[in-house]
Amino acid sequence: MLLTSLCSTSNLTANLYRCTAGPEDKPFVEAHDSYSVAFVRRGSFGYLNRGRHFDMLPGSILIGRPDEEYSCTHDHHDGGDECLCFKLKPELVATIGDDVESWQRGAVAPRAELMVLGALAEAAAAGDSNVAVEEAGLALVAKVVSLETGDRHGMGKIRAKDRRRIVAAAHWIEEHAQEEIDLAAAGRESGLSAFHFLRLFAKVVGVTPHQYLIRARLRQAARLLAEDDQPITDIAFEIGFGDLSNFVRTFHRAAGMSPRTFRRLAQSGMRPHERKILQERLARAA
To answer: CA 228 → CA 9, 86, 132, 141, 215, distances in Å?
Structure first.
């Protein structure tokens, strides 16, 4: 495990973890040392927590609690994986509360609003945004904490062979997100009928194939908006949206702001009143 320290403030520490473990490496028991929220940037792995198995893919969120044991498996992917992890300081946990139900989730399936904020955090960590790493991390934590419970991600008994098929299909969708992908084509990649592919994908990943496709596109859009001045229309078509208005509506629904506003925030930094709004969101999550 390779660790790159990004920042440490009174609220949190941010680290980039790179794991090079592969299918031949045996899992072992570890324990979280703090409350944490980790955004999966690349690769895939299995996360075993309190008798539950979660398949972690790009865009998934791993949630940690102090002293809680877990182990990771790497049966699906031998190229390594990366996580952007925000460990919360006690002062911040006191603001949020340690009894918030979100801490019980273990993991969260890729969701549109998390994809966008995760991409902003990635850009901040890479120095491609004027938003501070701490600010991006706090925004991601606030959104995770505010999510309603009831996510069935990680539940159910599924054969290891089928898990591998679906994880490989999810990576394929992400790599071809800018293309037109239908259910039959994605199913063929897994050697499954469209019907069985849809059912299995939703069970393993926690969202449908189309939802994962849209969220992968939104993640790409957020990174492009944060990093350069390419016209928004060009970005919409580049990432696979055939209609600008549809892209704007979808992005606004996920991010709570227009692509133009998101770009200004990412490239100009967070203004005092925007920091205040973020602090208020954290307070309401308590």
So the answer is: 28, 25, 17, 25, 20
